User: Which sequence fits this backbone?
């Protein structure tokens, strides 16, 4: 809480003391959009990271077989010209013959097949290999510009996966790079990278050979320069001086203060990211863990005032969620068991479970420290002594895979896919290391929902799964995130409904 207060005070000071700067027009004058990311970009290859910063970058530098139209939220062909589903497990795709790599060469069917096979190959160590290898059985060429993907089973999210998880690479790219992403990416997207120094400099320019009739259109702004600025006060100063013109994920209290100045504009948009507490129900960390008791898990749910956290900390467009998914997603049911804030009921449930004096438990987290401190305080009021262990995200992930986390805070953005299949199997499939419930009913329901094209069957299966998760209190669903953007007044930016940031759509406002 102290850190948030200090940052806000610094921003308020900037609003008063920072003079008007003549650099505010620099972006328009040089046709360069100056962008700030809160985290470093250490690789420009989205095949090897799942950071949102790289998701944004990937849409600029890479085209995939398909693209999610931000207005209709439907998948449309991009590198693909057309597709046809044969039966339940064969996908025929016709490839365009006018797609250029940034080195000027035309993309071929061999490049597409190579890219898919590399993405799903366990030896590639790509970030998406586990997801893709679950459903892609083989990829073969069936005509001059045609490929055929055979699946192990029906996969209703196949086109979404091929929109986000497979980037086009020239055949042999990774072998030439000795299995690692190269320093400058040879992509197929509307922008190409002309300068990259990890964690320091990233400059892109509009790719002249990019086709103008595609679903991404033709970018208006010529250049994009991206810097990593982790300190929000520094970002605020850069916005006010015109040093940057676009940033995202700024905390709401700081963004609101900054947006009150005429040199900045706050834009609030949707996000498909949700936050939640996961509890070790199967007892990986401790066979006699209190979390194995349903009433203990119910007590933890009742002990946390999620609405107060949303109202006073997260704010913006954030909303409390009760289901283990985002309400915007297909298959996410909200008519489930809800645990309203009731500390007295939480105490009674703990006593009934055999813990009248509470117990001690570690809570691991890698983000949202103020929220975690509130949770720690609220659980303490009902007798649960929380040992808050704040670590790096990578350390949290390693500990989870090793089965060392009894209770932890996590978030999931579903890659902005508006389908509960983008969050369900990742956390509830039998083989998932994130599945700490071990519930065969949930596992089977998720399997039916994500391996079937019939919408009615999918809805019924999701309904069963999310109701069961809520009834058994396997999670403490917290809130859907808000997404704050701060831009300079000369920038025209409209957030997409799915929460994915498409910087190639940014334009300069017409001078008044």
Assistant:
């Amino acid at each position: 809480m102290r850190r948030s207060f200090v940052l806000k005070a610094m921003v308020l000071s900037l609003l008063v003391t920072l003079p008007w700067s003549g650099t505010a027009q620099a972006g328009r004058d040089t046709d360069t959009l100056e962008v700030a990311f809160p985290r470093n970009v250490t690789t420009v290859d989205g095949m090897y990271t799942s950071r949102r910063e790289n998701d944004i970058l990937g849409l600029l530098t890479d085209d995939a077989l398909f693209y999610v139209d931000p207005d209709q939220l439907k998948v449309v062909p991009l590198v693909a010209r057309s597709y046809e589903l044969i039966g339940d497990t064969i996908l025929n795709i016709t490839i365009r013959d006018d797609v250029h790599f940034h080195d000027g060469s035309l993309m071929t069917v061999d490049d597409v097949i190579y890219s898919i096979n590399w993405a799903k190959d366990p030896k590639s160590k790509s970030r998406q290999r586990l997801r893709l290898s679950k459903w892609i059985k083989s990829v073969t060429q069936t005509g001059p510009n045609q490929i055929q993907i055979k699946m192990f089973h029906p996969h209703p999210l196949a086109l979404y996966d091929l929109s986000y998880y497979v980037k086009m690479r020239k055949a042999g790219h990774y072998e030439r790079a000795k299995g690692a992403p190269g320093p400058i990416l040879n992509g197929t997207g509307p922008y190409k990278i002309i300068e990259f120094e990890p964690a320091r400099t990233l400059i892109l320019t509009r790719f002249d050979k990019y086709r103008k009739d595609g679903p991404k259109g033709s970018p208006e702004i010529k250049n994009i320069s991206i810097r990593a600025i982790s300190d929000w006060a520094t970002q605020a100063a850069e916005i006010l001086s015109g040093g940057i013109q676009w940033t995202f994920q700024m905390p709401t209290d700081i963004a609101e203060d900054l947006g009150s100045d005429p040199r900045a504009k706050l834009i609030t948009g949707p996000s498909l990211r949700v936050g939640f507490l996961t509890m070790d129900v199967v007892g990986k960390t401790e066979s006699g863990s209190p979390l194995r008791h349903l009433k203990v898990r119910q007590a933890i749910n009742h002990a946390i005032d999620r609405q107060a956290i949303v109202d006073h900390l997260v704010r913006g467009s954030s909303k409390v969620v009760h289901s283990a998914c985002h309400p915007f997603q297909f298959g996410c049911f909200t008519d489930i068991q809800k645990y309203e804030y009731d500390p007295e009921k939480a105490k009674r449930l703990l006593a009934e479970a055999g813990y009248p004096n509470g117990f001690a438990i570690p809570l691991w987290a890698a983000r949202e420290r103020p929220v975690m401190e509130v949770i720690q305080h609220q659980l303490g009021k009902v007798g649960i002594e929380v040992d808050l262990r704040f670590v790096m995200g990578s350390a949290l992930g390693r500990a989870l895979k090793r089965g060392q986390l009894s209770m932890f805070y996590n978030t999931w953005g579903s890659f902005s896919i508006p389908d509960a299949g983008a969050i369900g199997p990742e956390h509830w499939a039998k083989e998932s290391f994130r599945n700490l419930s071990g519930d065969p009913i949930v596992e089977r329901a998720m399997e039916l929902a994500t391996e079937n094209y019939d919408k009615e069957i999918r809805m019924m299966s999701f309904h069963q799964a999310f109701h069961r998760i809520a009834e058994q209190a396997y999670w403490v669903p917290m809130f859907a995130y808000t997404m704050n953007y701060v831009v300079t007044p000369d920038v025209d930016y409209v957030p997409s409904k799915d929460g994915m940031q498409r910087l190639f759509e940014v334009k300069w406002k017409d001078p008044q």
